[in-house]
Design goal:
two-stranded antiparallel sheet; 15 helices; mainly alpha
Length: 360
Amino acid sequence: MEGREGKSTRGKRLRSVTIFLVYVYVAGIVMFCFVLRGGLSSLNFRDDSYMSYTKMINWTAEWPYVYRTLLPSLVKFVGALTPTAVKQRVNSYAENKPFLKKIGWTTRYSYECLVSLGFIFVVWIAFAYSVRHLVQMVYVTDPAVSDMAPVAALLLVPAFFLENWTAIYDPMVVLMGSLGPLLILKREHKWYYVFFPLAVLNKVTAVIFTCAFAAREFRYMSGVRLGAHIAAQIMIWAGLMALLGFLFKDNPGTKAHFQLFWNLGGFVLSVSLLHTLYSLAFFAGFAFLIGYQWKKKPKVLRQVFLAMALLFIPAVMMFGRAMDELRVWYDLYPAAFLVALPSICSILQIEMTSRPEFDG
């Protein structure tokens, strides 16, 4: 009996280690694409870019980018704790490196940029585990599916930026987009209220999680209690927005760009035909996978996803380059992937059903 238990324990450890190594490997692929695309766009690693890593970390980037400050502020904090000699040694080592030159690396703050990339790599791995937990929680399927679904979720991420560019805060947006639904679906209120202010500091669009929270909790809470939770979250959101507005009041730029007319057709004339076709195929693919056998998807998940989408889609159509900068859809991507997953499994003839607690 003890021998069997020992073998079972070793088997679980081997499985865990293998999964971790696979996630690290795939995260490395995504990381390479992310860094290369960001460097080639000339926006990330040049100190004179209006939203470079350096300016984001030093809080001197233009609006509206500067208020997406969670990861840049973490890097700034690490930089403040690091001895100057260490930073100078790293900066000297990075100078004139061929690969860094290839991706437009002209920053004088190599240490801070490399710390940023280290954080981003960890974020991609955390995203994989978050997706795995979501799949295990919501669906009944073969364990291999829940183990490998995060690989698919990671490998789809470059589809959002290969035709565009990347930003230092983007990976954290993807991670928050998975952690939010995870905590909301699990009804982990205490951890959710730790998560929510951090999500707001990462991006203003975190208010969509309040809609998801309401969709999840309306059957469990009285109207008064739910209203109090919603009011508290709106106050947290508004308070942090006011604080960031005060801290960065002297930064250049515009707090919001009205993009509705661009999204309704202007982008077709302003970008290449290939890019336009790519964007249309992107949306058509996701729409099909989300809508296919819609009523068979978990009811609770559908409600949470729709609550997020009904606020996010109009907002991004009005204030984001929604049609050609596909990266602006990161906020909704993890929830959309979770909704689309049964469709993918059905097409591949893989059995997947909803857990009862999320289907009624």
